[in-house]
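Field notebook, page 217. I keep forgetting to write these up properly, so this time I am using the form the group agreed on. The chain and the ligand, S-adenosyl-L-homocysteine, are recorded exactly as supplied. Prediction of the bound pose follows.
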Amino acid sequence: MKKDFGKKRDNLIDNLIRKGYIESKSVEKAMRKVPRHKFVPKKVKSRAYVDSPQPIGEGQTISAPHMVAMMVEKLDIEEGQKVLEIGGGMGYHAAVIAEMIGEKGKVYSIEYVSNLAESAQKRIKDTGYHNVQIIQGDGSSGYEKRAPYHRISVACGAPSIPSPLIDQLVLEGKILIPIGSKFFQKLIKATKRKENKIEKENLGGVRFVPLKGKHGF
Ligand code: SAH
């Protein structure tokens, strides 16, 4: 059974490389390592290595593997960095980031739904990612307590970039966030150049669940 998941995972990663979603060795290495089947609900375990989004309960979905691959590639994550994730979900994306930043880095992942936050924290602990902390809360205002961050990764769609998130970035820090309506968004990559100046890049159309909370819908 274990061997089977490993083989399916390798096939999935081979495909993501062939399609150009995975470009770097660091993303390849991270995604070959994280056991995605331990991060999806039991019901969809057999589909853990299929490249499509999966329902995770509470009306939420976990992104397709190619979306996670693209997001970690575009965010230029480096070893030792402190990363904030908004929308922890099952914790899979956080685990991929954790592999990339290594033992010296840290991921703080905020999840709005308390059931999801609780079970993601347990899963993260069981899979041995000591450099990840899942926190229940409204991530639309970021997580001031551990700011500033080198990178911020938002896994839900927002009406605009919440200003606290820019405030909580280091200079030259980067944020990836889907911006648009509740149903369709553009994936925006923004780099903080000066306290009041951000440089934006549009990475194309995406579909994420809506960001809730103070700066959400
Ligand atoms: N990255 C996750 C999937 C995220 S799905 C994974 O790999 O499993 C998007 C998540 O964002 C949902 O779980 C939803 O509950 C959460 N969310 C929505 N609004 C939020 C907010 N304001 N703060 C924190 N999490 C939020």
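OBSERVATIONS:
- Residues 60, 62-63, 86-93, 110-113, 116, 138-140, 155-156, 209, 211-213, 216 surround S-adenosyl-L-homocysteine (CB under 6 Å).
- Residues 2-18 form the longest helix (17 residues).
FOLLOW-UP: compare against the apo run.
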